[in-house]
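Example record

The entry below shows one chain as it appears in the dataset: sequence first, then structure tokens.
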Amino acid sequence: MREVVQAKDDLLALVVRDLGLRSALIGRLSMLGESILSLEGSFEQPAIRRHARPPVILIIDLESLDGRLDELLATRHWKGIIIIAEAAAPLDNDQVRMVGLGDALSRVVETLADWRCDSRLIPAE
């Protein structure tokens, strides 16, 4: 597993309903020096716009996403979106990754490291 080793200028907005997974993600990412805004409920909360200025990476479970990925991408607020689902799936968008629930902790960390090494990603507005 590759750990995130470079400076972390991105804020991570975490919208994960499962308390155990959310706590584990907060613990793991905090130990790696990440800045995290953890929210319960919807990604539409005003707190996200108020506290999460771009660049922001959204980590969200599939249930919280509620089928509104296109809407999220259209806002250009998100530098990247990591979706946690029952199983990983390939997506046709460099700004979005879907990771499986069973290995979400390691795959989220790996995805962040990959994105930070990839100069092709378009920064959020």
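Notes for this example: The radius of gyration is 13 Å. Residues 1-7 have pLDDT under 50 and may be disordered.
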